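Fructosamine kinase family protein: structure tokens wanted.
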Amino acid sequence: MWHFISEHISQATEQLFICEHARVAHGGDSHACYIIHDHQHRFFVKTRPYDDTQQLSHEAEGLTELRGTQCVLTPSVICHGVTRDESPEMEYLVLSYVKFITPSQDAYQRLGEQLASLHLYNGFSSYGWPHDNYIGLSIQRNGRKSDWAAFFAECRIGSMLERLAEQGHYIVNIDNFVDDTKQYFSHHQPHPSLLHGDLWHANVGFCHRGPVVFDPAIYVGDSESDLAMAELFGGFPTDFFHAYAEVKPISHHYAERKLFYQLYHILNHGLLFGGHYLAQAKDIINTIRS
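Answer:
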């Protein structure tokens, strides 16, 4: 495997690279992670058994799209592909190696400013994405729609509720709640922003150049979706939100809408992990309906 990947790195960088050492690194649940190096270069590599999902290809696309805006810093995609003439075939993603450091006092302020700049980036006229991708281990339904209410209600909330129902978890009447969601957002047509899509503290790091974001689940949607996620699972410090608002003011209606946006992520966690996330999803729905 490392010989195949080394050859691809050499082709992509136009510099000879021969993996001399591969060290297992901390990574996600769906793939293995390594730091590989020769006497001069170092790379971060993700691998997983190849299947039709091509999850690492979707991740490469997301990182490339985010980096292309020049608003946020991500690891550079060096190359990605599938090993051949090996059993099992492995999908791989090679990224630039980033040495993470303890964040400076103003690090989250810079992240807030950069995320706001990303959300203000003008490059899209509709919501969604050309094809499905992944949020964690879950398929993220996409497609393109001109109406934010329809996209969010059907492709985010409805999609998750349907998959939970297939697992036997009937949290709410799906058709009714999707209709309610669509009605709630019927007069909300936000600027189509490129979103990280899975923005929580485990998907952010800091290096000497500033904040670095990774493991995206990109699509085009309401910028408030990223903010709502950033409040979950420990959340970002208040400096992040204040700095964001200095660049892109946050609507006073955000406090209401964020319940729907957070529900999407809680439903996803319920799909993956069950347990208290299902109860939390029911609580959010009850709050929305109260």
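The CA atoms of residues 260 and 288 lie 8 Å apart. The domain at 2-96 is CATH 3.30.200.20 (Phosphorylase Kinase; domain 1).

Cheers.
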